[in-house]
Amino acid sequence: MWVIMEKFEITILGCGSALPTMKHQASSQVINVREKLFMIDCGEGTQVQLRRSRLRFNRLNHIFISHLHGDHCFGLIGLISTFGLIERTAELHIYSHPDLVPLLESQIHYFCKGLTFHVLFHPFSPEKRETIYDDRSVSVETIPLSHRIPTCGFMFREKKTPNHIKRDMIDFYHIPTYLINRIKNGEDFVTEDGKTIPNNLLTTPSAQPRSYAYCSDTAYLPQITEQIKDVDLLFHEATFAESEAIRAKQTFHSTATQAAQIAVAANVRQLIIGHFSARYDDESILLEEAQRIFPNTLLAKENLRISL
Fold first, then answer.
1. What positions carry a catalytic annotation?
2. pLDDT over 90 for what percent of the chain?
3. Whole-prediction pTM value?
């Protein structure tokens, strides 16, 4: 059965780690859910990558910061400044550890006087699981992770859309317009003579809600599998190859093998690995390690766009 799918896309703006390289940009992604844009992390250079992506600036209203290491947030003040230069008017919402608020407010006060829009902060604790955003299309909840400072990932869960009406059946039973929304939401229709017309004769099912989990930066943390179980796409950091497992543990990062083990345990549909250490000129070693355990694995790269 043909089902209409609304947009749910992930665009990788940057997938490198802390040390800048000529190959990779600092961490940042944009999630497009039904033409609403949400940014995860905003490392240095993010606004240039956003330009290259050809995503529309004016649809980006919410930015989620996983933790306060520079490669995940140094791009914020530049992006805010640019929004001011193009005379943005829509509010910009930033979700982060509370410590970011005074730091960024002081930069805005000094560098961005006279902004034409409001920057609104939504502080949260990265150390506990909670829903930090919710609208008719999607909810976003935190995924507590294990890193050198308080850090979390983010789970995007799409909301189910109403069923699609069968116009010919609606016309056939002369169903009034005011009942259409109720039928879309699952109600049966009762005719004037008391006959019940089942909803499945009047509608076709909407697409199954989709989900995306972002987990970077983190040491190997098997307990997250319960929260991310059965997601359609998991982004998991794979900073190191297994030969650097000791280094990964020391720095609270993961290997490609560990990322794949998480994907298997959580029964995810697809895995994408990123946050690559600058030591790897060729990340194929990381991809091969992950694919040996979880074959449906992709390497992140700048401007990669994945549709769910």
1. 71
2. 80
3. 0.91
